[in-house]
Amino acid sequence: xxxxxxxxxxxxxxxxxxxxxxxxxxxxxxxxxxxxxxxxxxxxxxxxxxxxxxxxxxxxxxxxxxxxxxxxxxxxxxxxxxxxxxxxxxxxxxxxxxxxxxxxxxxxxxxxxxxxxxxxxxxxxxxxxxxxxxxxxxxxxxxxxxxxxxxxxxxxxxxxxxxxxxxxxxxxxxxxxxxxxxxxxxxxxxxxxxxxxxxxxxxxxxxxxxxxxxxxxxxxxxxxxxxxxxxxxxxxxxxxxxxxxxxxxxxxxxxxxxxxxxxxxxxxxxxxxxxxxxxxxxxxxxxxxxxxxxxxxxxxxxxxxxx
Length: 307
Prior knowledge:
With 307 residues, this protein is of the alpha+beta class. The chain has 3 domains: 3-50; 77-147, 2-Layer Sandwich (GMP Synthetase, Chain A, domain 3); 181-303, CATH 3.30.1330.40. It is 34% helix and 21% strand. It has 10 helices and 9 strands. Strands 4-5-6-9-7-8 form a 6-stranded mixed beta sheet, with helices on one face. The chain has a 3-stranded mixed beta sheet with strand order 1-2-3. A hairpin with a 2-residue loop joins strand 1 (93-99) and strand 2 (102-110). Helix 1 crosses helix 4. The radius of gyration is 21 Å and the shape is globular. The two termini are 36 Å apart.
């Protein structure tokens, strides 16, 4: 992936998640400079569009590497001791468990899992095959202080973790042995939580999963927007290990209700006979109108017993 491609794709992810407006991406991309090391990530962070947690989730989506939710991850003592404090600080990393799908593979959270030199060094330090996942730098430092005795690290003030609606893979999808079982989960779990918009993207309550509104390809044709909304729905479902097959109910909102036949054609293509119950509603969205604005959005409920 070239410097330009990486910045452009990161911008698209940040825009899809609502961190930044699409019209602002072009201006910010023009300010990037490979020779000076000025990346879109640096510009967005410097301008205060995103905090560290939001950027970690966006990079997780960009590179297809899981991220660590420190509040939900168990750090096994027999695993964390595979590195000492000095090594944890040197590589900004913490080993926390083994990959259940590959028991010989050591799971390590670090601020830069794309650094292959770091991976090779940690492989030698731990004597194990390693899989690196994303973690926020300040959260890793705080955890190092908790797990390894020594002088406190100089870390930035933390902000609450925010799960934005990006195509990211939480570490729970790559389970470490010793992690909590379903019986230990809370009755209600919230994912893709946005403090800015004060809503959750998806909530698990028992065996039911409630999806917030999904949109995509705003400004495109009605076909593109309907497909974009279902792409968004699939991304949210993927966060909890589900697919469109699990969706049992949908509310479909149109600016022009006469576009229902377009949606029906797309539902047939994407749901392949496993159709949810649904209703369609015409509404004036709180968004710019006309063909340049929002034309379609969908929310729904999914079901997954014994998940």
